[in-house]
Write a structure and sequence with these properties.
180 residues; Hypothetical protein af1432; 66% helix; mainly alpha
Length: 180
């Protein structure tokens, strides 16, 4: 498996956008925490989170094909497959818990960060019920595909409110680094 530092070098060679880098860092942290909770490979899950959108900035029309090809060439088939499946409309199978976890964490974590950014206290006082309420407001973070949020939780086999609570907890623990 490629090391964390090799993954970070790959990421930084493809992505410069600070907001996008922060998004991938949030997913990395959430994925690592879920791996620990589920007894999965933390390094593998963290790398999938870190690299899932690495090619989006330079190749938006080819995303995620470029990063998937690079990872396959490096022998990282499992991570490559998870990244190729992090959006249900791409029609890729969900074969592993890693595949389902990345799908379940990507869109929702981004949405939770958006919820935190509009609060005076940031993530510190954010609760799952506020996130659920915002999910129903189609005008808030309108680019977030709500269907992906619900389908991701369903495929991952987690109840949405507890899934949101878990992600909030991870983000709270890292709020200084993430600036939320």
């Amino acid at each position: 498996m490629i090391s964390h530092s090799e993954g970070k070098q790959l990421l930084e060679s493809m992505t410069q956008n600070v907001s996008l880098l922060r998004h991938m860092r949030t997913i990395e942290l959430v994925m690592e925490a879920y791996a620990e909770k589920l007894g999965e490979n933390k390094e593998e899950w963290a790398l999938a989170g870190m690299l899932h959108d690495a090619d989006y900035e330079p190749f938006p029309e080819k995303h995620p094909q470029i990063i998937v090809e690079k990872l396959k060439a490096m022998g990282e088939e499992k991570i490559a497959h998870a990244i190729s499946a992090h959006y249900t409309k791409w029609g890729v199978s969900y074969d592993t818990t890693l595949d389902k976890g990345l799908l379940a964490c990507d869109e929702l974590t981004g949405f939770i960060v958006a919820c935190a950014q509009v609060r005076p206290e940031g993530i510190s006082t954010l609760e799952p019920k506020s996130v659920i309420k915002k999910l129903k407001d189609k005008g808030f973070a309108a680019k977030v595909d709500r269907e992906e949020v619900y389908k991701g939780a369903e495929l991952f086999g987690v109840e949405l409110t507890s899934h949101i609570a878990f992600i909030i907890d991870v983000l709270k623990k890292n709020k200084e680094e993430l600036g939320i």
